[in-house]
Amino acid sequence: MHSPPSTNPQKTQDLFLVCGLQSLGQHCVAVLKEYDVKVNAIDDVQPEHWEVPEVPSLLEKLIIGDCRQPSVLEQADISHCRSILLVTRNERINIEAAFAARRLNPHVRLIVRSDKQNFNKLLWENLGNFVAFEPTHLSAHAFALTALGSEAIGYFTLEGQLLQVIKHQVQAKDSWCNGKPVHRLNLTTRRILSHIPASSNPLKELFGWNPEAEVQVGDTLVYIDVAYDLTLSEQHRKSHNQRWQWQQFIQGITAKNLKDKIAQFWQSYYQSQNQIRRIATIYAITVLVLWFVGIVLYRLYYPHITLQEAFYATAVLLLGGYGDLFGGVEFSSSQLEPSGHIPWWLRLFSLGLTLTGQAFVGVLYALLTDALVTSRFHFFNSRPPIPQRNHVVIIGLNRLGQRVAALLQELNQPLVGIHSTTLDQNTLSDMPLIVGNAIEALTKVNLSRAKSIVLVGDDNMENLEIGLMAHAINPATSLIIRSQDRHFSDNIAPLFPYAQVLCGAALSAEVFACAAFGENVLSLFHLSDQIVMVTEYKIEEGDTLNGLLLSEIAYGYSVVPILYQKYQRDNYSLMPWYDVKLHAGDRLIVLATSSSLQRIEWGEMLPRLWQVQIEKALTTNAIMYGAEEIVLITGCSSATARQWMNNLPGVLPIPLYKHQAQRLVRELTKIQVLANVMFIGQGSSST
Question: Are 457 and 411 in contact (CB under 8 A)?
Fold first, then answer.
């Protein structure tokens, strides 16, 4: 819940408590202080290493003790705390401390580090004002998106829809955007987040761009759109991808490369099979050819026998029946002549048929035995083959690595994992896996044709060592290295500019801190060195968002509404238009930076610096329609809007945001009302 801003010019500082001052806890303290609040902390020992050096000076109190003990919590002023962040590395301690904190302060908000999803849901239902996160899940999105190396900088799901955030540099061939005003690119399935002209620096605010500017080649567009509906079955998508791959293969066949395509098919089809299966295939083809030749020879040499008898005679020889046909037994006139009348070359050919057939039967037995043995093995441990190209290599399949792999698989990205020990049979069973030493395994993962390599092991130096070796093998591949220490990240990032070093604690701290103020953070991504969070609000009476138009929320707090659901309605709107007014009970999901969430917390909107001057209405109906547009876009009453339209020319006395004023002018122009925007240089912050 977001209380309305205080009328006191001196903000009332809320008190927050952080339990556990390891890496995540220290980063949480630093982020919380950006909101201008008081922070106390509890740790079981005096920290010897401050990953964030300024933390000691940011704390009001540091209590050394067990955060599960009521006496320790009382020393930390738990009764006056708005929220408590329980971020020790022990889930059991975090949950037990949550029980103690709730007993001492029934209203405190509980932010818990825990991966027990079912238990967390039960605690939320029973304790209330409770939220739990697992840092590895939060940071996994950043690692997965960086590994993709595409224009997509963010992925998340809302109501079964996969949404993607795209950062695209405009090309001359981009007819959908090149040469068009930015505002025209907004659709019901797409919303522009940023437009950066080729000669400009990245924007600090989401709405710092000009909606009337024309998109030119070299400009950078950042937008969010609906990728596809996740209700489609995974099997359907996989079969579609397989059909697409076959179509691409067949369409690429020409007379010149037919031989190469056959060789490619042979290699790809049998890359996961053993050598005996190749031999069996060759033998089968050989036997069929000899069978056909034998039928022809016996039919020509013994014209009095039927084609059927020649067929069966050759089959008997192939099945080892040389002694039955050529053992001196007299044949009837309808069969072959006595053995003494057969020329030596035909007898030798017949012997060759028997030897070939016997060899084929032996190979067939070996193939069946191999199939029986390997089928039992694959039943317990079945892994697909290692991709040949354009794949991601993940080294270190701990919890973070497994989460990154799962996210990449959801996006149909080929990948292979390297881990020191064998994984459980149910863990990522459809992912290729190499077990053993990571350095030795680099030669087995087709690294020279890989898209990127992700190192998420628990040892910073080992990650760096393997990363440097991988870069030496393939300098073109993207290198993503996990760091558990911000100092380590800050030191090596400038020295190895080709590597992207991500600190999981720093990524997760933003989410924990924002959740402490009541926000429900669903996901996050990076945009121009800022963390943008997908944040959900449930509007309540007294909230800073209650009673505002979506346009006022978007431009006043610099957030992007992407989902709106009216109170007690099942249907929802993705990429909603900004003419909706929020009321208590409504649900809203926005994209917001940390500074935007701070503004919402304090109720401090950006100033409205623009007004609209209306010259005249060209028709009588334009006056009526113009009043309707003014009501829709500004939120004023119908009577006030009609009064303004009946006294033209004039300047609308209500200050607006730039995007809001420009949209009003565009809509008035469509209904033949002449108007323009005016910059007034100063405005009031809406409260």
Answer: no
pLDDT at 99 over 80: yes
**For residue 337, pLDDT beyond 60:** no
User: Contact 122/55 with Cβ under 8 angstroms?
Assistant: no
Write down the H helix ranges in 603-675.
Answer: 620-634, 638-645, 658-670
**Contact of 583 with 565, CB cutoff 8 Å:** no
Half-sphere exposure of 249 (CA within 13 A, CB side): 15
- Per-residue confidence at 685, pLDDT binned at 50, 70, 90? very low
Are 537 and 584 in contact, with CB atoms under 8 Å apart? no
CA 116 to chain CA mean position, Å: 22
Q: Please tell me whether residue 531 adopts helix, strand or coil conformation.
A: strand
Q: How far apart are CA 493 and CA 248, in angstroms?
A: 40
Q: CB of 224 within 8 A of CB of 165?
A: yes
- The helix (H) or strand (E) run that includes residue 122 is helix 117-127
Q: pLDDT class for 258, splitting at 50, 70, 90?
A: low
pLDDT at 238: 47
The pLDDT of 258-280, averaged and rounded, is 54
* Residue indicated by tokens 């981009």: 174
User: pLDDT at residue 683 above 60?
Assistant: no
State the amino acid at position 35 in one-letter form: Y
What amino acid is encoded at 525 in this protein?
F
Contact criterion met (CB below 8 Å) for 466 and 480: no
Helix (H, G, I), strand (E, B) or coil at 417: strand
Instruction: Check: CB of residue 351 under 8 Å from CB of residue 322.
Output: yes
The rounded mean pLDDT for the chain is 82
Instruction: Count Cβ atoms below 10 Å from residue 246 Cβ, excluding itself.
Output: 10
Q: Which strands, in side-by-side order, build the sheet including 573-574?
A: 520-527, 530-538, 587-593, 560-565, 573-574
Q: Can you point out the beta strands (E) in 489-541? A: 499-503, 520-527, 530-538
d(C-alpha 315, C-alpha 291), whole Å:
7
A 10 A CB-CB count for 569 gives 12
Token pair 């919402």 is at which residue?
Answer: 600
- DSSP per-residue letters across 332-362: PTTSPPPGGGS-HHHHHHHHHHHHHHHHHHH
Cβ neighbors of 569 (< 8 A, separation 6 or more) are none
Distance CA 538, CA 518 (A): 10
Contact 385, 271 (CB under 8 A): yes
Each residue of 638-652: pLDDT tens digit?
Answer: 999 999 999 999 999
Q: Which helix (H) or strand (E) holds 19?
A: strand 15-19
pLDDT of residue 229: 57
Name which of 610, 594, 617, 405 is nearest 516 in CA terms.
Answer: 594
Query: What's the pLDDT at 285?
Result: 79
Report the DSSP pairing between strands 433-435 and 452-455: unpaired
Mean pLDDT on 406-432 = 86
